[in-house]
Design brief:
Elements: H1 3-13, E1 20-25, H2 30-43, E2 47-51, H3 63-66, E3 74-78, H4 81-91, E4 94-98, E5 105-106, E6 116-120, H5 129-134, E7 137-140, H6 152-169, H7 180-191
Parallel strand pairs: 1-2, 1-6, 2-3, 4-6, 4-7, 5-7
Length: 204
Amino acid sequence: MTPERRAKLAGVLNKRQPDLTVVLENVFDPHNISAVMRTCDAVGIQEIYVITNKVPRHKKWGTRSSSSAAKWLTVHQFSDIKECVDVLRSKYAKIYTTHLSTDAKSLHELNLTESVALVFGNEHAGVSEEMLALADGNFIIPQVGIIQSLNISVACAVTIYEAMRQKSVAGHYNQRRLPDEQFNTLLDQWGFLGEDKDALSNEN
């Protein structure tokens, strides 16, 4: 690995946010998942969680929209919701679901500078009742149009860019936040990956 490449990869890892994650529950379309992955990479999310207890386990992601983003992320797949939530509880302080309910908060009311996992549900059924019961609360994205819904990948993008805005104001991107062990492990792993035009486009 050249010094230039190492510096580029280290610069990206310096912006990773270990206290922010996305959970995709039974999202069916792999292209939606890959689009979410690309946005997660863009805002500095390293780990995402994919639950597939009601849809087939995903073997690969839609490469066209991800531009190989999956290889830069740590993706955890679960076939059991409770098992996934137990892992989330060990790593994140809050779990919020996207769900239209009487007690749902506006996205802009959430404190996304705290340690948080954001759950997005199936394209048609939304977040399951089991996940809703295990979460700390629900949120909605403010909308004023006729159709009060967004594509899953768009909803995720809007949400995590709001998280990025809040975390930027709080200075979370100003210093490395990944633990040293995780930082060094990922740097070594990434060093073995092939050249990626999207991820390394700013090297020259």
